[in-house]
Specification:
With about 575 residues, this protein is an alpha/beta fold. Among the domains are: about 150 residues, no CATH class; about 180 residues, Rossmann fold, CATH 3.40.50. Helices cover about 35% and strands about 15% of the residues. The chain has 16 helices and 17 strands. β15, α15 and β16 form a beta-alpha-beta unit. α2 runs antiparallel to α3, α11 packs antiparallel against α12 and α14 packs parallel to α15. The longest helix has about 50 residues.
């Protein structure tokens, strides 16, 4: 019998495994390839992570620079008299601040194209601000872009990326404000034009005289000594036949008794002043008539009539050559600024021993001339129902008008403003409005003692509180009260109580004290209660005029800048 053997074939897979077991080098090669591939990938991701982290760091540096530059630039948008000046200051500030910061170990340089000016819209319901580029709507916002081109990459170079450009942007806006300006229009707001204060400060009575027939004082008006102001070469109007100013009013040396610009014509004395006689002759009065006109009389009515003719406020038509009574008078026409008073009011005032001027300086009694005429207008017929002095430089109210104009100029385009005034009573003059020039123009049309004489600070403040809580006020917008006064309140509600009410409504109060008679204690107390600040403008008109402008410019610029993106 033939023997046979059994043969079993191996599967192919078993053969492969055998081969692999038999060839360990092949297995190691495969691992090396996969390791190399995954290592490159992992190194790439690691390089990318490191470079991305560095790019984020650079961008963080740029963002901090952009934030700081935008805030600093926005804060300069109130620094300057015109939008062009403000934008120039803002651009310069942004650039100077940027180069002080580094990104990618280099100073950041912001170009002109990187700073964009504009305005913004504010959704009061959501509180959201939206930047609106362009200066057509005014300038109240600025956007700054900080750039770092060609930032060198480290490990990404192995993937073919050597540099990248990085930038960051920030936009800052000036918060809008609702502002109520509260202005003192009491009688004391013309003190520095009064003759009775001539020995205490450099009054501007001559400028008052010159401006009676124009021109109105410049805006702004700059007071000073008589030979220094814009009216230095102005000859002023003629009042009757009185047209000579006389001696300059120097606080240290002026003496009314030797002033050729004042004619001393008391009752019971003949008038021998050469200028009076020559002016009567020029008006064709005869020697006999001049003797009657300038003769002595103790009868008050007769004295007043004779004085009216001597000063040219009236002409006499005698009934006969021997007429010894000056009683047929034709009064001269009144100037355009007069409303209700009469020439006899001036004559009576100059003779009154109880006038404010004569009580302080008796030597001015019975002295007639343009100096005392101006003081008569200020003292006796100074409110708007009697005389229009709005186009004259009464001080300090004119300095206040000019200061409010600066406040209007420096306030932001997103601000709105109201005007309240007060004397014996408070008056709401201008509603909260974006047309802030209306506030300045309205105030320019007012004069000291415009409505009434006393000082009611409390009611003036109350008018501001009422307006800032009216439907015209904006929800969620800071409320600001700017109070200007000498602080010498004489009537009305307690201003401290009203200030406490304003503070309880989150209104901030800035007070501005002006004049040497200021009650600064009260003004400081009001400002403290209102979480604001008291400012003080002291000295002569020339001094406080400049100070007031600086103060109101500061207040106009007290706006908070915030980032909106």
């Amino acid at each position: 019998m033939q023997n046979s053997s059994l043969h079993v074939s191996k599967p192919a897979s078993l053969d492969n495994r055998s081969r692999r077991h038999r060839n360990p080098n092949a297995r190691r090669g495969t691992v090396i390839v996969w390791t190399a591939v995954t290592s490159v990938t992992m190194i790439g991701f690691a390089a990318l992570a490191i470079d991305v982290g560095y790019m984020y760091a650079v961008r963080g540096e740029l963002q901090r620079t952009a934030d700081a530059a935008a805030l600093a630039a926005a804060s300069q948008l109130t620094n300057g008299d015109t939008p062009a000046v403000r934008m120039a200051n803002a651009l310069e500030t942004a650039q100077l601040l940027s180069v002080k910061n580094e990104s990618d170990r280099r100073a950041v340089e912001v170009t002109t194209d990187d700073v964009v000016f504009g305005s913004y819209t504010h959704d009061l319901a959501s509180g959201k601000f939206t930047f609106v580029p362009g200066v057509g709507g005014g300038v109240s916002a600025v956007r700054v872009t900080a750039r770092r081109p060609d930032v060198g990459l480290l490990f990404s170079r192995i993937m073919g990326f050597t540099t990248t450009d990085i930038s960051a942007r920030a936009t800052a806006v000036l918060l809008p404000r609702d502002i109520a300006v509260v202005i003192d229009l009491s009688g004391s707001m013309k003190h520095d034009s009064y003759l009775r204060f001539h020995d205490q400060t450099q009054i501007n009575a001559r400028d008052m005289w010159c401006s009676l027939d124009g021109p109105a004082p410049s805006r702004p008006y700059t007071p000073g000594a008589e030979h220094e102001t814009e009216y230095a070469g102005d000859t002023g109007p003629t009042i009757g036949v009185m047209n000579t100013w006389g001696n300059p009013i120097d606080p240290a040396t002026y003496d009314a008794t030797v002033d050729p610009g004042l004619w001393y014509i008391p009752p019971g004395q003949s008038c021998s002043i050469p200028a009076v006689h020559s002016k009567l002759q020029a008006r064709s009065y005869t020697s006999a008539q001049i003797g009657t006109i300038t003769g002595s009389t103790t009868n008050y009515t007769e004295w007043r009539n004779r004085t009216a003719v001597m000063t040219g406020l009236a002409e006499w038509a005698p009934s006969g050559a021997g007429d010894a009574s000056v009683n047929e008078l034709t009064w001269k026409p009144y100037p355009s600024y007069r409303i209700t008073w009469a020439w006899t009011d001036y004559l009576d005032w100059a003779a009154d021993a109880n006038s404010k001027l004569a009580m302080v300086h008796p030597q001015f009694r019975y002295r007639f001339g343009v100096k005392t005429y101006v003081d008569f207008l200020l003292d006796r017929v100074d409110n708007s129902s009697q005389t229009n002095l709005t186009m004259t430089p009464e001080e300090p109210v004119t300095a206040v008008k000019d200061a409010v104009q600066i406040l209007v100029n420096t306030s932001g385009v997103s601000d709105i403003m109201a005007l309240e005034t007060f004397g014996s009573t408070g008056r709401h003059e201008v509603n909260l409005t974006a047309d802030m020039q209306q506030v300045a123009d309205t105030l320019y049309a007012r004069q000291a003692n415009h409505w009434d004489n006393n000082t009611n600070i409390g009611q003036g403040l109350q008018m501001a509180v009422d307006e800032l809580t009216s439907t015209r006020a904006r929800y969620g917008v800071p409320k600001i009260i700017v109070l200007m006064s000498d602080g010498a309140t004489t009537t009305g509600p307690d201003p401290v109580t009203v200030a406490e009410e304003a503070a309880s409504l989150d209104m901030k109060i800035y007070t501005v004290s002006v004049g040497y008679i200021s009650d600064r204690d009260l003004m400081q107390q009001i400002a403290t209660i209102g979480h604001g600040e008291e400012f003080y403008a002291a000295g002569a008109p020339e001094d406080y005029t400049q100070k007031l402008r600086e103060i109101f410019q500061t207040i106009g610029g007290l706006r908070q800048a915030v980032l909106i993106d």
